[in-house]
Amino acid sequence: MSQATLRIQKISGHAGAVSGAGMQRDMKEKQVCKLVDTTTCIGCKACEIACQEWNDLPFAATSFNNTYQTMPDTSWNYWNLIRFQEHTREDGTFMWLMRKDQCMHCADPGCLEACPADGAIVQYSNGIVDFQTANCIGCGYCITGCPFNIPKFNPATRKVQKCTLCADRVAENLEPACIKACPTGCLHFGTKDDMKDLANRRAKQLRENYNWANAGVYDPEGVGGTGVIYVLHDTTKPELYGGLPANPSVPWTVKLWKHPLKWLGNLAMIGGAIGLFTHYLRFGPKLEHKNGDGAAGGGQGGAH
Amino acid sequence: MGASDYLLPNNRVLRYNFRERMIHWSAAVSYVYLLLTGLAFWSPWLSWIAVVLGGGWVSARLHPWAGLIFTFAVLLMYAQWADQMHETPADKAWWAAMNHYISNEDEQVPPAGRFNGGQKFLFWSFFWCGILLLLSGVVLWYPVQFPAAVRLVAIFIHPVAALITIGLFMLHVYMGTAYERGAFGSVIRGDVSRAFAMRHHRTWFEDLVRAASPRK
After folding, report:
1. Mean pLDDT across the stretch A253-259?
2. A82 and A96 both lie in a single domain
3. Residue A84 is part of a domain; what is its CATH number?
């Protein structure tokens, strides 16, 4: 019996729709997507705990920094973090911004681009970007390549870990653990098309009915779109939401290194080797025992 | 060491003393390890090198330490040779005769001192590339501790500097083994023939002979 039958269709005492209910569930060959509606997140951290539980991650000590955030940053054993920001609006009113931070599963992933280890990072046909830890060499280039600061170094194994979008659950037509745990319906999961549609409808609602003129959907083009999209009260200021980058992209130095420099370097190395060998064939060695007296055409004259 | 200590029996001349040879080979052995593991990270087509050397993970752990050994050797090299590596007018004349040098018309190449213009170029290029590799390498070694902008520069500088050294290395190995016969022995046993000294480092050799001469 497939675990897909464990999909929840009704929840007791639950405000709003069941997360992802009514969405297309045939994910084969389709890009999957997580929708995070920051406007309805209450910061309960149920998704954080569900992530820890499902992925069997050991909880690490945290610190209290006068904030309603579980810990300062995501870590190798804490893949899902509600970023919390106290924000004062221009009219002096006050709001709490909550953003569920995790791997964005970019269509054009900077981590994968930067990774030098064969098979350490893969992108599945459903769009999930997954680390294959067995192949990871622990160089940390993915950390540098990621525009969202997601991959985290595990000092014990010297390898890098991050959110898998619960690829194991999704393969069984189940939603990721975080989605299943969300009590407000601010998290949804389905195909990218469905999630975009739902997100746009919610953003329209926010613009037309809730006086959020700049409400919109965060699905950044610079990384080819993401497998996690946000509905934000104000898409013009994504940085407010715990440093969500306005225009993320695969870093240009990574692109420069991986493409033109690689070809140039390979050509130079092979060309250099051919050049040196050709020089040897053309001119041959400078023999040690040629007469050193400056006489032209001395030939192999023997030692002094 | 006095000049006469450089003039050995059997018409041999001491080119590099034991200390110089040790430092050279410390740099050389660590560089070759860095080159091999670096190439394994450079291209997936060369990943097999890392497999031979204990796997990608092991190579990634040891590469930075080998880099520290290499840097240390380069700094020792700087301490022992930097004084002898300043460019002189004779070096400029030597560079100008490059076409004769590469076509083995050594009679038309101006005499060189202990190090010719090309060797000085190799020394300074390796020195400065070594500094760049060290600085960028430390950043890549501790990916979390440095700001993203610094890491993004380092991730590009490191292979660029490495490629420059690979070009220099290929040239250096070619000249030291195949091209200039006698040069390889000079960095193994330390000595060269007087013919070699006259041919490649005439000013140096003549100065040695003059300084060692009792008539002077």
Report:
1. 93
2. yes
3. 3.30.70.20
Please give the ipTM for the structure prediction.
Answer: 0.89
pLDDT tens column, A258-292: 999 999 999 999 999 999 999 999 999 998 765 54
Strands A32-37 and A228-232: parallel
A156-204 confidence digits (pLDDT tens)? 999 999 999 999 999 888 899 999 999 998 999 999 999 999 999 999 9
Q: Evaluate whether residue A240 is within a structural domain.
A: yes
Identify how many contiguous H helices and E strands chain B contains and give both numbers: 11, 3
The domain spans of chain B are 16-212
Using the Cβ of B54 and the Cβ atoms of chain A, whether some distance falls under 8 Å is answered with no
Q: Is residue A17 part of a domain?
A: no
CA A262 to chain B, closest CA, distance in angstroms equals 8
Calculate helix-pair angle for B148-173, B18-42, nearest 10 degrees: 120
Contact A148, A104 (CB under 8 A): yes
Nearest CA in chain B to A303: B195
In chain A, which residues have their Cβ closer than 8 Å to the Cβ of B156? 253-254, 256-257, 261
Instruction: Answer yes or no: do A169 and A96 share one domain.
Output: yes
Nearest CA in chain B to A153: B144
Percent of chain B with pLDDT over 90: 91
- pLDDT band, very low/low/confident/very high, at A25 (cuts 50, 70, 90): low
Mean pLDDT taken over chain A: 88
State in Å, rounded, how far the first CA of chain B is from the last one. 18
List the domain range (segments joined by +) for residue A233.
26-249
B195:A141 CB<8 A: no
Asked whether the predicted pLDDT for residue B8 surpasses 50, the reply is yes
Cα Rg for chain A, rounded, in angstroms? Answer: 27
Q: Looking at the domain assignment, is residue A20 inside a domain?
A: no
Q: Does CATH place domain B16-212 in 1.20.950.20?
A: yes
Phi, psi at B85, each rounded to 5°: -110, 10
Q: Does B51 touch chain A (CB under 8 A)?
A: no
- Residues in B 104-123 with any Cβ partner in A closer than 8 A: 104, 106-107
Closest chain B CA to residue A277: B174
pLDDT for A226 beyond 90: yes
pTM across the whole model = 0.88
CB atoms B160 and A261 under 8 Å: yes
Q: Are residues A148 and A273 in the same domain?
A: no
Q: Phi then psi for A27, rounded to 5 degrees?
A: -90, 0
Same domain flag for A173 and A280: no
Q: Is the pLDDT of residue A19 over 60?
A: yes
CA distances to A35, A55, A288, B116 from A100, in Å: 10, 17, 72, 63
